[in-house]
Design a protein that fits this description.
This protein is mainly alpha-helical. It contains nine helices and no strands. Helix 3 crosses helix 8.
């Protein structure tokens, strides 16, 4: 499994995926810094930083990008012969597909952590005087990443089954899905715990169910799609 993950990681380096995951957080935090800079001395400057990034990342970029990244990952296989290069090594199709899911999950997690680091750095660059609630940024962004995993795994399944363009286009629908499941609100609820602000009581009622459903749905989608891919390739 580890060899397959390593191979998948190396293959993905030949695509635009690493660049998208590297540059998107820079663009988001750069825009945010420019917008907040005139208000950097205000008491809620860090909250303003979080609010802008939260909306740009989780309400717009994430649902679009997760579909696009899944489409690009599937297109890589289509352009290189539909997995044939690795199948000649008698590797289980389930392991190959599972490795692709794992690599996408790891890459998007690293991009999320990169976003948290850049968020704190952006605030320091524009000289926000108060201490950065870095724990709040990491906790809220990672929680949002976990909640988005079903979208990522589902997009990859669509890409493999119906074509990469379908998955990329699904990202537009993903914006609506992200809004319905409350990805931006999820981050706000967690972030408020780290800035000594009162959180909405309803948040604590809904957070753990949403969190549990996201993990459970991710596991179910991963298992079903892996089984589907294995059956298709074996046939």
């Amino acid at each position: 499994m580890l060899k397959s993950i390593r191979s998948e990681w190396i293959k993905s380096r030949r695509t635009a995926i690493p660049w998208l995951l590297l540059l998107a957080p820079i663009a988001v935090t750069g825009f945010t810094a420019l917008d907040v800079q005139p208000h950097r001395l205000e008491k809620d400057a860090w909250t303003q930083v979080f609010g802008i990034i939260n909306q740009l990342w989780f309400a717009v970029w994430l649902p679009l990008a997760w579909g696009l990244l899944s489409g690009l990952s599937a297109h890589l296989e289509s352009a290189s012969g539909r997995w044939k290069a690795l199948r000649i090594r008698h590797v289980s199709p389930a392991i190959l597909y599972g490795s692709k899911i794992a690599v996408l999950a790891i890459q998007t997690l690293l991009s999320t952590l990169w976003l948290a680091i850049l968020t704190v750095a952006a605030g320091k660059i524009i000289a926000i005087p108060s201490a950065a609630p870095w724990q709040g940024f990491i906790a809220s962004f990672v929680a949002g990443w976990i909640a988005s995993l079903p979208l990522l795994i589902g997009s990859l399944w669509l890409a493999e089954g119906l074509g990469w363009a379908i998955a990329a286009g699904f990202g537009i629908i993903g914006i609506l899905i992200a809004s319905l499941v409350g990805l931006p609100r999820l981050g706000v609820g967690i972030f408020t715990k780290y800035i000594e602000a009162p959180a909405d009581p309803l948040f604590f009622v809904t957070f753990w169910p949403v969190f549990a459903v996201s993990i459970g749905l991710s596991m179910i989608l991963a298992l079903i799609s892996i089984k589907w891919f294995h059956s298709r390739e074996v046939k």
